[in-house]
Amino acid sequence: MFTGIVQGVAPLHSLEKKPQLHTLGLAIPAAQRDQLTQGASIALNGVCLTVTHWDEDAVYFDVMIASLQLTNLGQLAVGDLVNFERAARFGDEIGGHAMSGHVMGCVTLCQRHELDADNLRLDFSLPPQWKKYIFNKGYIGLNGCSLTIAEVHEERFSVYLIPETRRATTFGLLPEGSQVNLEVDPHTQVIVDSVERVLAQRQLEGV
């Protein structure tokens, strides 16, 4: 499980491409490797990945073809910055919202609005298949960052970023047109899907 509180931004140190697999080497700072073990889970741009090994330069992860096709990890090049968060431990403070690291797909950063020195609004595309889970003041995971949805329109939704979020994540400089990993709030998804199933069953039964 992850909290959606990004612990840092690190550059992609190396990239090995195979036909059905990419091996990513992320230059995670030494201070963030405390008690790191082989097989540990770390979210990269919100995607839960398994540590295969590490050396002085980087921590390494294998990414399967399904994840490469579904997320923005398949678009990464050496030098690109990536949000990372290590898996939560028992007793950790949940500062954002519970996230699984199972990304549903990508949305497009449509527009950046620099409202003033301290406020930035980001507008994202709203895929029809996820619209029922996205609503005003609900939670959403974008590139592994837990954010509150500010506005929802027919084809877009918006979030606002405080200066600390801009500093601590890749969103501060992310250009328009970028593909961003999306994870809807899993609790919202369970509730919406459960209500839909109950209503569908009642309709079949003529209740």
Automatic annotation (TrEMBL):
<dbReference type="InterPro" id="IPR017938">
    <property type="entry name" value="Riboflavin_synthase-like_b-brl"/>
</dbReference>
<feature type="domain" description="Lumazine-binding">
    <location>
        <begin position="1"/>
        <end position="97"/>
    </location>
</feature>
<protein>
    <recommendedName>
        <fullName>Riboflavin synthase</fullName>
        <ecNumber>2.5.1.9</ecNumber>
    </recommendedName>
</protein>
<dbReference type="InterPro" id="IPR023366">
    <property type="entry name" value="ATP_synth_asu-like_sf"/>
</dbReference>
<feature type="repeat" description="Lumazine-binding">
    <location>
        <begin position="98"/>
        <end position="195"/>
    </location>
</feature>
<keyword id="KW-0677">Repeat</keyword>
<feature type="repeat" description="Lumazine-binding">
    <location>
        <begin position="1"/>
        <end position="97"/>
    </location>
</feature>
<dbReference type="Pfam" id="PF00677">
    <property type="entry name" value="Lum_binding"/>
</dbReference>
<dbReference type="InterPro" id="IPR026017">
    <property type="entry name" value="Lumazine-bd_dom"/>
</dbReference>
<feature type="domain" description="Lumazine-binding">
    <location>
        <begin position="98"/>
        <end position="195"/>
    </location>
</feature>
<dbReference type="InterPro" id="IPR001783">
    <property type="entry name" value="Lumazine-bd"/>
</dbReference>
